[in-house]
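ok, trying the design again with the full structure, not the truncated one.
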């Protein structure tokens, strides 16, 4: 590997992933920020962590993720800003330019941009949200929940196994208790209860 013509030492995938997990461990449950991280960085990293069998350990080390693209779309008017590419936002909001193809410069500019963005705990989503959403496919196919509801459940960190456990322990009441904590209405618990009940018959 080369960077601007200079050789750069590279590591094998497993070592690189292991080093990253170790780095996160020292940071005490950090939140991972990235621009368009939900659509690009997370799926790529998720795949590599699955390949190296390090996903379970990785998930123990982080609190979740926040996508600054989503924050920017919420906070800045496109008619004023032009577009939501990180390089453009840094230019328009911070009045700075940087090499978008330089990973280090990219990270540093995003860190500066964060100072201009508002976010809260509600913006955190689970790193493995796509895996959680996929687990809910049987409920979607059975028309027990819609795709948007599945995404909301996954963003709350809930998968089918969690829902099944709540149902096994407390039936509809147990499901309702878990779902209510995350802002879901009783009708969602009722629909999921019907799904699990039909599987038992």
């Amino acid at each position: 590997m080369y960077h601007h013509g200079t050789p750069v030492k590279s590591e094998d995938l497993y070592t690189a992933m292991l080093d990253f997990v170790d780095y996160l461990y020292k940071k005490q449950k950090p939140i991972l920020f990235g621009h368009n991280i939900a659509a690009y960085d997370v799926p790529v990293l998720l795949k590599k962590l699955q390949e190296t069998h390090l996903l379970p350990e990785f998930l123990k080390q982080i609190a979740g993720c926040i996508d600054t693209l989503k924050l920017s779309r919420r906070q800045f008017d496109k008619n004023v800003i032009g577009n939501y590419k990180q390089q453009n936002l840094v230019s328009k909001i911070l009045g700075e330019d940087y090499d978008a193809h330089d990973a280090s410069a990219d990270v540093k500019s995003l860190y500066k941009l964060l100072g201009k963005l508002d976010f809260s705990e509600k913006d955190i989503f689970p790193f493995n949200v796509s895996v959680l959403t996929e687990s809910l496919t049987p409920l979607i196919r059975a028309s027990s929940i819609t795709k948007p509801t599945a995404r909301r459940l996954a963003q709350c960190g809930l998968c089918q196994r969690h829902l099944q456990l709540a149902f096994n322990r407390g039936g509809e009441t147990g499901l309702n208790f878990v779902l209510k904590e995350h802002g879901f209405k009783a009708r969602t618990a009722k629909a999921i209860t019907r799904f699990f009940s039909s599987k038992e018959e």
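Keeping the full-length input from now on. DSSP finds twelve helices and four strands in the chain.
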